[in-house]
Amino acid sequence: MLPEIALKDASRDDVDRVAWWLGEEEMSSKWFGHYACGDPVHRGYDPEHMLEASESEWRMVFADPHRRIFSIYNEYEQHIGECQIVFDLEGGAELSLLIGPKDRWHRGYGTSAVIALLDMTFEEFGLQRAWVSVSEDNLAALGLFGKLGFVAEANQELCWRGDGNVLTTRNLGIDAVSYQSRHVDAELSGSTRRVVTVTGLPGAGAEAVGREVTRLIGSRFVGDEIREKLCRRLRCSPGELEWLEASSRSFWGRALKAMVLPTDWSAFFDIRYQWYRPGYEADYDVLDNQVTNKEYVRGLSAVIRSLAAEGNVVLNGQGSHLFVPRAAGALSVFVSASPETRRQRIAEEMGLGTDEADKWLNQIDLDEVANYKHLLGADLLDMGQYDLTLNLDRLSVTAAAQIVVGVARTATPSVALARPAMEPIPDPTG
What we know:
By secondary structure, this protein is an alpha/beta fold. The protein has 2 domains: 179 residues, Gcn5-related N-acetyltransferase (GNAT) (Aminopeptidase, 3-Layer(aba) Sandwich), CATH 3.40.630; 225 residues, Rossmann fold (3-Layer(aba) Sandwich), CATH 3.40.50. The strands form 2 sheets. The protein has a 7-stranded mixed sheet with strand order 1-2-3-4-5-7-6, with helices on both faces. The protein has a 5-stranded parallel sheet with strand order 9-10-8-11-12, with helices on both faces.
């Protein structure tokens, strides 16, 4: 079991200890970051200089938006190291790490710190890649990162040592999908808890089937909670999510996005597609606060993966079948029904007339299909994505749920995982 650590803002006392650690050759050689011949190189700041720095200079260094610097504390509230996340402005970040006291080496603190950094990099900051630069003779560090799934990418010669040998570092990297898959694999290893996703067009009865499955197997039903978790993760309101979905499914909305802003940004128009083109004097910090398509997909993937990791859950819609990791052994179900059955169900549930229900269904069907296509890069109605398809024209909700439970209990994980893995990539421009 790995030891517990905490990442905290650095204090001057912490920096003083870092300076002492780097002053010892054996310790400085274990700094997982840049390396150089001669004096040890510390990323981002000179510890000895910062001890005497003014408050303004201190804030400039330790509040730099392009770099996050943390002190590592162990379970006994002792300062044992430092780590950093250095953003590379290309959707990734370089990680660096130092465990100072020798009596804390090889005891799992480095592993715990790197896992915390990776969780922060991929979950909080939503980046797509993390990488490290490690001296080729630092076998402990190379083993640590290899164990966590980092893959060697390139070697770099930095300088000649005093003994005539070349000092070489190895760059190792890991992407968000690989890390999240390994993370969930570890959480689910040995687990037999079933994950079921139930998807369908509005009015088909997918939610009713999902709730009945939940009752029959004693699991947890998650529907609207997915959107609530997504809002909290993206720090946005439900209205902002609806705005993004509406703008992405409209041809003109997507076209205006492509003309006004890069595809990683959001366009300034509302759900009525009234366009506002920001002028040259616009504050682009405002644009940065808008939810983007990529952030939406990354956030939704993280929410679904987290729920799947808990196990024993029925996930209703929201693209859940696209994001559940293979290790979860999920059973993916699609519930269908004829337009007549769906229209009748919607009319009863919403108190609408037949014509009103028909118009509502026609529009909502277009919206659902467009959301999947333009936000999630998937075809909602591609039956090849699902393990089981049920027609509620021929089956009652109870009968359909019993079939799902029977398949879920008898199917091996390999059966549930036979369908192709999907990692949808949003196409904001359509």
